């Protein structure tokens, strides 16, 4: 099985992490993969804020309704895209997926936390001092796994249709 396919098939959302920092070089490699994600018209209107400071992670975990575990992660990446790009949600989602897959390639676990149009989106933008022209798309916790979840996934036969439904 090709490495990329294996990563996609083995990746799971992890919400428990061991206390071990991620080297800066690896975080940079992960973000380098994010910036190479496809964008509509090659717009590339994004910015990635990597948070490793304990106090800021704690504040993010308090803000994010379903992201309390961010506090225990080694890092959190906030993905922002320019609001005036009509495809900012799609572009930011593609970058978020690249973050998750690149992290998995380094045996780093992750969990995608919704950010787009959430009640806390503007508070996160303000906390991280991101200019107003950007909109939060997602938060991604990163860390070395403290659990190996294996939730059931639907069978291919349940979701695949040929030619028509």
From TrEMBL:
The keyword Oxidoreductase applies. Keywords: Oxidoreductase. Residues 9-74 form the Nitroreductase domain. It comes from the Bacteria. One of its GO terms (molecular function) is oxidoreductase activity. SUPFAM superfamilies: FMN-dependent nitroreductase-like. Pfam families: Nitroreductase (PF00881). InterPro entries: Nitroreductase (IPR029479), Nitroreductase-like (IPR000415). Belongs to the nitroreductase family. This is NADH dehydrogenase.
